[in-house]
Amino acid sequence: MRIKRRTPNRSITGDLINILVLIGFATFMALPLVFAVSNAFKPLEELFQFPPKFFVRNPTLDNVRDLFALMNASWVPFTRYIFNTVFITLIGTFFHLIVASMAAYVLAKHKFPGHKLFFSIVIMALMFSPHVTAIPNYLIMSQIGWVDTYYALIVPAIAAPLGVFLMKQFMEQIPISLLESARLDGASEFKVFTKVAMPLVKPAWLTLLIFSFQALWNMNGGTFIYSEELKTLPTALQQIVATGFARAGAASAIALFMMIVPLTVFIVSQSNVMETMSTSGIKD
CB atoms < 10 A from the CB of 96, how many? Predict the structure, then answer.
């Protein structure tokens, strides 16, 4: 008995139209990135030209030179701002992933008394704007003596509710039978969490890594940090912009630098982020 092979109901014309539409959307979404790169290499007269030009006409490295000259003239080295931002971003992101994943695992797979109430509190916390919680956060940090320290930026980021919500939604899709099989094989609860649950929700925690990294990398922190040697790159950028139009070129250069790092993290992680639970072979 011959089995007829099904041919996909697609046409070359339809595929071509889909490709052209996707290229159009991709080009439109890439315009802000191209504009930021173009601005970083524009001389001052082009930055303030009206009507503004999208692409640079006379590219120059003067903006980069001005940036390094400005930072070298400061009593705090430019590398100090970089260290502060990198340190806060890496430590905050790492511990946020750990804490959010462990809390989500308990809420999703251990039905203890009050677990619904705890998750309702997490959802309610998502509704509060950072502007609403700014004053309570400052009062708390002031009372415990964390103002003008790294803790004031790292600890609130570790307790961000978005990570718990995202991880819990993914961990609920893991079958209980899979976890019970690991326990019957003698695995401890911590080993079940690290060796079974976490690999299965890899797309979720990689997505959370990008969100947390981007939020911390772009965090200003001027509300809590007053010592110049503890300030971050966004704070330095704000100070440069506040000096006036003469520093617009340097501000464009540092804005490009601030954008490149999160973009690189996303490009490296995007193949894993695009995965879904179905690709992991999990079925309810």
Answer: 25
**Distance from C-alpha of 55 to C-alpha of 64, rounded to nearest angstrom:** 18
Q: Which residue has the tokens 């290499």?
A: 41
Mean of per-residue pLDDT scores for the chain: 80
**198 lies in some domain:** yes
10 Å CB burial of residue 266 (0-12, 13-18, 19+) is: middle
% the chain with pLDDT above 90 = 5
Q: What would you report as the CA-atom Rg of the chain, rounded to the nearest whole angstrom?
A: 24
pTM of the model as a whole: 0.76
Residue 281: the pLDDT is 42
In a domain, 54, yes or no: no
pLDDT-derived band of residue 94, with 50, 70 and 90 as boundaries?
Answer: very high
C-alpha angle 98/101/102, rounded to 5°? 85
CATH number of the domain residue 110 falls in: 1.10.3720.10
57 within a domain of the structure (yes/no): no
Residue 199 in any domain: the answer is: yes
Q: Can you give the residue range of the structural domain that contains 219?
A: 70-279
